[in-house]
Structure formats: C-alpha cells, structure tokens
Amino acid sequence: MTSILDLSAVELRDAIACGELSAVEAARAYLDAIERTEPRVQAFNEVHADRALARAAQIDADRAAGKPLGPLAGVPLAVKDNLCMTHGRTTCSSKMLAEFRAPYTATAVAKLEDAGAVVLGKTNLDEFAMGSSTENSGFRPTRNPWDLSRVPGGSSGGSAAAVAARQCVAALGSDTGGSIRQPAAFCGIVGLKPTYGRVSRFGLVAYGSSLDQIGPLTRDVTDAALLTRAIAGHDRRDSTSVPRDVPDYLASVNKPIEGLRVGLPGEFFSDALDAEIGAAIRAAAGAYESAGAKLVDVSLPHSRIDRDADGKLSSYAVACYYIVAMAEASSNLARYDGVHYGHRTAEKVEDIVELFSRSRAEGFGPEVKRRIMLGSYTLSAGYYDAYYNKALKVRRLIQNDFDRAFEACDVILAPASPTPAFRLGEKTSDPLTMYLADIYTISVNLAGLPGLTVPAALGRDGLPIGMQLIGPVFSEETLFRAARMYEQAGGVRRLTPPAMAP
Description:
There is one protein chain. This protein is α/β, with parallel strands linked by helices. It has a domain at 4-257 and 450-500: Amidase signature (AS) enzymes. 38% of the residues lie in helices and 13% in strands. It is built from 16 helices and 13 strands. It has helices spanning 9-17, 23-41, 49-64, 107-114, 157-164, 181-187, 221-231, 249-252, 275-290, 316-332, 352-363, 366-379, 384-405, 431-435, 442-447, 476-490; strands at 44-47, 76-80, 118-123, 170-175, 190-193, 213-218, 261-265, 294-298, 305-307, 313-315, 411-415, 451-458, 464-470. It has an 11-stranded mixed β-sheet with strand order 1-3-2-4-6-5-12-13-11-7-8, with helices on both faces. It has a two-stranded antiparallel sheet with strand order 9-10. α9 (275-290) links the parallel β7 (261-265) and β8 (294-298). The protein starts with 8 loop residues before the first helix and ends in a 12-residue tail after the last helix. The model has no long low-confidence stretch (mean pLDDT 95).
C-alpha cells in the first residue's frame, strides 16, 4: 500500500479532492513524521500543529459540503522562517528577531493558503539568509537527511532538509545567491529560483533587495510547477513585481520540447568542479542528446572560475556578488537597532549610540556582522566607486554574457555546486571557502534569471548530485518542461534518504 508520505503534492491534492484521503489524515501523517525525525534533522524553528490540523479539518468540511476547493487544498507545506506570517514568530533564525511576531503575512504564503495549502511550520535557515550551510543559524544547525554529519546547504537548508526527510511534501525558500538551488542539490530535491520580479517579495525579510526571490522546494518537477503557479504573479505591494501573465506551468510540464538546444558553458567545467559531479552533468547532457536535444557550447566569460598560484579559486561573479549583496545587506539591516525592530539590550546604557551598539552586538551573529561591516565599507566615501560602482558594471557584463549565450541555446545546463554536501564544521573557519560553495549559482541572481535544480545522480558516497538548468527571463515554463524531459529520460526523481523512510 502506498504511504501518504510517498505521494507527490499533485497526487496528494487529487486524493483529497476525490475523497480517497482526508486533509486531516495528510496533516497528521506529516506531523507524525516531523515528530519522528526532527530530533535528528532539526529542520524546523516552529511547528504549528494545532493550526495545521484546524485548517485541514476546515478543508475536509468544505469538501463534504460541496464547496469548491483550491488547487492546493490539503497539501502540507513548510515555510522558510524569513517569510512573515501573522501566526507564530518570524525569526530569520536570529537572536535579533527571536520574539518577533509579524503584523502581516507574506504575499507568497498568503497565496498558498488561499489555494488551500496547510502550513505545518517555519523552517531553519542561515541567520538572515546569510550562508551556504545553515550552520550560521542563531539557534542550531540543520543536518542533511542523507548523512546527518553533513550540511543540507543554505540558506534554505531547513526547507530543503524538511522536504528530503519527508517532513512536508514541499516548502518555500528564498534565493539571493543560490539559497534554494544549492540546498536542493545537496538534499536530492527540486528547487526553483524564479525570474526576479516573477514572485512578490512582499513579506520576505530583505537581505539583498535586487537579488532576493522566493521559490519552491519540492520532490519532483511537476510539484515545482504546481507551487510556482500558485505563488507567481503581480503584487502592487512590491514595486519590483512584474505585471505579467502567469502561464499554467502544470498544464504544459509533460510536453517535451522538440529541438531543445542545451548550452554547456565551458567556464563551468574547470578543475574547480568535483570530478564526480562533472561526470554526472555530462551524463545528463548525454541523456538530453539521446532524447533529441541538441548540445551547444556557450561561453560565460565573466562567470569564469580561476585558480591562483596557491590553488585558491576566484571568480568575477563571486567578487561582484559579495560586494552588491553585502552593500544591500548593510542598508537593509540598519533598521535593527533595538528601537525600531528587534532585540534591545538589557544592559544599562549611557546614550542612544551605546543602545544601538550593544543591541546590535548582542542580536547579530558573526557572519551577519561580517557582511554588514564589509557592506558598509564598500559604500563608504572613497570606496563606493572603487568597489560598489565597479561591481555594478561587472554585473552588467555578466548579464550581457547570458544574453549572448541564449542567442545560441534555450537553456543552459550547469552544476549547482562544485562539491556534494560537505561535513558540518568543514568550512566554518574559512568564510571565503564557504562563499565559493555558491560559485555556480550567484551569477543567475546577478542577471535576474530563473534557475532550476533537479537531482542528476547519486554519488559513490550515496550523496545526491544536483544539476542546474538556467533560462532567459520569464522562461520558467521552458525550464519545467526541459527538467521534466530529464526526469523522464534520466529516471532520477523523488529520491528518499534511506534513514528517513517510514
């Protein structure tokens, strides 16, 4: 007999809609799974069990009364804890916001609930979404369900781990430089970073305002198409939200793309890439070719990865990203001063300056402090032109590279990470090494493009290997169809960590 936890979001929704399964049964199954696995995985900051069961019971009552149900009716989801909800706390996994209760709900979350989804709780993340491993959480690290000694990626590591561990059927994350796609790769699931402006950022606690996007993490491509359709669309409360029609991604996801042109960027297949991951990506390219796609060599020169005489990696994209992102973080996080928002020191202070200083020193963790200081430095007098303004020019060059590449191909096939999931504590002593974990994802955010990670293979250590598909702006429909072609041709989908099976 098929377990409730084996069903996809689409299958679960359909089973609830036709009465084969109740929404309460689905919610209870996932709440039981959270109770069973959470002590090991530690993916959640809060579990809203009573609220979830009450919402599920209302959905069952509506179905029994013959009322129309939403396209996600009864589907149990989780939400990254930097998305505001009026229920519970929104902490960003920071002591600065440990007791913050939002006065409104993020548009993306509200759209999911309006569609009938049942939110089970809020998931852990790197503090204020600043990190690549979820080890920067102000509360505790989350662990990878495939190997509890390894990281789940970051910053949406809690959401990715929760989906992989079957604590929820899908989740929302946010992606500023790879924070959906990299943890999806590490945890063997699907993750989409939509085109900038495709999904409203209203209610997302800002990190890098020109880079942030909300997106889904799911077990397969079809579910990602379902959730993206639900959360996408214009929102007048977000000035960067684009007034553009949203396609029915689910209706077209199973249609193969005839004559699909798959671009392979030579700059991404250097010795910086783990050999096993490189082999998996090339095997995926071969699967596309066997399915009728045409492979095309493309170039992204300003995303090139170099190795210096000491063996250390570098990239224009990485340098550009960490100037732009940290400058925006410095500006966005200035509001947390112990007066307007967040933690206020209990120590006796002499003046307002000391109040600000002590409150911020106590509330922010080391990585957040590092990024605020670096961002403030690059924006300061005498350094703005040398660093920030120059980074914006490089950002334009990166966008131009992608524009030229997409003249020759429909999608770009690339790695999602240079290595499989690394061990807890392996990179925490060297921030630069940690930053390079996003070396294949950050250029997508700088260019405002959509990027989709799907499982490509299982490595020799039993760890998932993810691949990334990148498309032109607003090409999510093409990405879903291309990724679904690979799911069908490559046969890698709905992976379950052995230790997490019921």
